[in-house]
Design goal:
The two termini are 26 Å apart. 0% of the residues are buried. Helix content is 0%, strand content 16%. The protein contains no helices and three strands. Strands 1-2-3 form a three-stranded mixed beta sheet, with no helix packed on it. By secondary structure, it is mainly beta. It has one domain. A hairpin with a 2-residue loop joins strand 2 and strand 3. The chain binds FE2/S2 (inorganic) cluster. The site of FE2/S2 (inorganic) cluster (FES) has 10 residues, from loops.
């Protein structure tokens, strides 16, 4: 499975000690692309439960939709 996500960053985000979770002492980096606190995990990855292998998805307004095809302009 894959996901289409929209990101508006144009460069790297450097992490520093203030990014550490004060309770856990670690940093959780989002790898699903759905976090509202990107690049940090905010628990939004729970939405991807039940995705099927070989299927592409897009998430909008809390809904999951299957992507059938992608059309691009030249
Ligand atoms: S891995 Fe993306 S929100 Fe947790």
């Amino acid at each position: 499975m894959t996901r289409l996500v929209e990101l508006d960053g144009t460069g790297p985000r450097k992490l520093d000690p203030s990014d550490l979770d004060p309770e856990k002492g670690d940093v959780a980096v989002c790898q699903c692309g759905l976090s509202a606190s990107f690049p940090f995990c905010d628990g939004s990855h729970r939405q991807v439960a039940g995705e099927n292998e070989g299927v592409r998805y897009v998430y909008e307004d809390g809904d999951r939709r299957r992507v059938e095809r992608i059309v691009t302009e030249e």
